[in-house]
Fold:
Amino acid sequence: MAVIEDIVFTTTLKDPVEISEGMMNRPGLPMLGCQHAYIAAGALLAAIKNEGSREITREDITEVFKRIKMWKRFRTEDHHGGCNKGDASDNRPDRAKLL
Structure:
């Protein structure tokens, strides 16, 4: 996550695809996982911020990242490849049976 944040907060690129591809090409990024939600949101917001048509602040982007983290922690859907799939941070015993 720190690498994604660093890229989002320092890039000067205006193309969200180019920004996200740069993040997805980082070694060690899992094929499936919540990192992709951070990449999609971060790349889009960074591109809009850099393009200048809307005022997007660092605090706005940080708030989006906090909301993604909350979604990851409290999500309810059980689709394969989803966030927290088998994640030890999901400490609800009833969910362990579903995973």
In short: Residues 86-99 have pLDDT under 50 and may be disordered. Residues 66 and 78 are 21 Å apart (CA to CA). The helical segments are 2-10, 16-24, 35-51, 58-74, 93-98.
